[in-house]
């Protein structure tokens, strides 16, 4: 058997990191940040605690990576052509993709909303979260300004609050929540 190449080691490392992140997401989503521990995550991942520390300095670092990876997955759909200006089609595309992400990854959204509801945990991500959300809100506000909407900032905040509310209701009742119907109403009323 020949020795592994640098590329093979890189792939193995990437695979281990994914296992750790997925296990941490499971544990955080089910037991909360404070109920989770590196030991529980390692046990769930079927790896040693020491291996986790080869990839992450702390439980806090794990949480940050999970949250920001999930948000990056969402933000990639906002202003997809990166011109700093939203069109109606881009808004519809974003809403469609957000609803797909919510339905495909309930555990992430459960964790995300629980972090937002815990001031001590929120402080871990607040600065970076704000840095990412402010430009998005400003772009949405400008979209409404261009449409001649009264109180465009208020409308932008309302839309983001509605999307958050939809996400929270869906994770509580994924089988009963009318996701597609709600999406259609949001697009009709706010885009």
Give an overview of the whole structure.
The chain is an all-alpha fold and 191 residues long. It has helices at residues 6-35, 38-45, 49-55, 59-75, 88-104, 106-116, 119-146, 152-172, 179-190. The mean pLDDT is 90.
Can you describe this structure in just a few lines?
The protein has 191 residues and is mainly alpha-helical.
Rg calc = 19 Å
Strand portion: under 5%
Q: Give, in order, the helices and strands.
A: HHHHHHHHH
Distance between the termini: 59 Å
Low-confidence stretches: none
Average of per-residue pLDDT values: 90
Alpha-beta content class: mainly alpha
Number of helices: 9
Number of strands: 0
Helix content: over 70%
State the shape.
Answer: elongated
Let me know the largest β-sheet.
none
List keywords for this structure.
191 residues
Write the layout of secondary structure elements.
Elements: H1 6-35, H2 38-45, H3 49-55, H4 59-75, H5 88-104, H6 106-116, H7 119-146, H8 152-172, H9 179-190
Helix pairs in contact: 1-2, 1-4, 1-6, 4-7, 5-8, 5-9, 6-8, 7-8, 8-9
